[in-house]
């Protein structure tokens, strides 16, 4: 599939030329008459969409128990339509003991009782589809709850399930003396402590890369691979439009057969300031990014594509969650033997590589890095926050909300919004007493838990300024509502002329223009503070973002950007900018305040 920014059949007079545009602009002009409109490749439904991540526990509570649920989501379908998003993806909604809030699934084929019933889910899908909203689920292949039937049967060595999980005998340094058994290796869990947990029932250790209650599946077991496809098919048949694939780098661990029959210890990282139980104390060579995992991802893509073909359905998309280095990340798109993988791996660069201290050059570099490494013919994507990381305005600065949302919406490919980003929601304060995140409880204490806790990014959504921010009629919610809800909430932002939400709506609307869906992109740092992104498509209006990411006012000369032409007008701007929609901006020197962002419209260059 051709990628968005190099869509090419351009009709110029009577000649057809192909304009390939990567980074810089190199249009071939072959005719004397003025250019006519380019032929635009029709995009598949997902290629230019906005995906909105819902954390179901915290989105909307329909029955007053203080926990978000499916009926709550269904009741707010209108919010997605008004916001201009094309798809929602929900963090796990399946039965779970909630040790890791749904990422510890005990039944992959049903709905968690707090969230509703299968009928509620079917209604959600139906209502969403009626309103043009696609529905994506979270697929958690790496592990199952130790309360799942899979685990219970495997622990009991029930035929067919013996090898469903990664079971290992203890190491007995003193002959056969079981009372001084040791774990098979020094591997560390993502949530701290050893990955190995002893089973009295089976008299073996099982492996868990996350919580003790999340046992890792054994992906070398064919029955597990089959079961994964069965789960995927089940939800495809329920009408879901695709999956976000959880924790993929952790699918495989080193095989003892390749290491003389033992689980090899990992080398120590030398990070001596860490406690030996903490992730980072060892260098993870044997429990993440193993090359075998990609074959499984490619297998899932084959499965999804053939299901679509057999059923004459619209494309089902697979989105890989993988915190990995750039080369291991890009491999999720596909490999050099032209095997195809995920539709895209999430681009976490705005989370892992940029922060409040980043300057405009850092931004330009990080954006170009993704575009440079992405194998050709693929679609980019941009993530600014999620349920595992501090919220976007808290990681960056609160004065950057509109500029960051503009960057998200103006960059080529798929934009991903975590619930609350559209209104600039910040991290909520969650006391140690109120903390429920297993990552914080396992690794932190009353003084340092905030460096581990994901609760601040998971506090309930701010609908309005009523009880519990309109999230629930219950004043007590599963996590406390952030205190700033009286000022930062959706209703308040709908009522005023200028708000993050109003800017967000204008930005998502802009994405339906040919310039944004098919145009080239050009990104540069005009200086240390000011980032410029230009989207251009011959014969269509040009849209550009000029964004001061720095903490001081700065003046730049827009005339230096060759794709801009007069008249330049403000399409939308950050809420504190003194330049408002419709204002004219000179093609010359412009001073931008810290965090100020202008989205400008100009005639096609
Ligand atoms: C096994 O080890 C325990 C603990 O060190 C010790 O008390 C016990 O005597 C040992 N048993 C045998 C049979 O060596
Ligand atoms: C990325 O990670 C892989 C696997 O851990 C490693 O082999 C490779 O050298 C790394 N590449 C870069 C660019 O860091
Ligand atoms: C919390 O843990 C840190 C690191 O292990 C330690 O330095 C600190 O004293 C602990 N604080 C409390 C209140 O236990
Ligand atoms: Ca509820
Ligand atoms: Ca695993």
What does this structure look like?
The chain is of the alpha/beta class and 605 residues long. It contains 15 helices and 23 strands. The strands form six sheets. An eight-stranded parallel sheet has the order 13-12-11-5-4-3-15-14. The chain has a six-stranded antiparallel sheet with strand order 16-17-18-23-20-21. A hairpin with a 2-residue loop joins strand 1 and strand 2 (15-18). The protein is globular and about 85 Å long. The relative contact order is 0.11. Mean pLDDT is 94; it is low at 1-32. One calcium ion (CA) binds at residues 61-63, 65, 67, 69. The chain crosses the membrane at residues 7-30. It holds the Pfam family Alpha-amylase.
State the secondary-structure class. alpha/beta
Helix fraction bin:
10-25%
Low-pLDDT windows of residues? 1-32
- Assign the CATH superfamily of the largest domain: Glycosidases
Strand order within the widest beta sheet: 13-12-11-5-4-3-15-14
Number of strands: 23
The major beta sheet can be summarized as: 8 strands, parallel
Instruction: Using the alpha-carbon principal axes, give the shape.
Output: globular
- Amino-to-carboxy terminus distance: 27 Å
Q: Total number of helical segments?
A: 15
Describe, in short, the structure shown.
Helix content is 22%, strand content 16%.
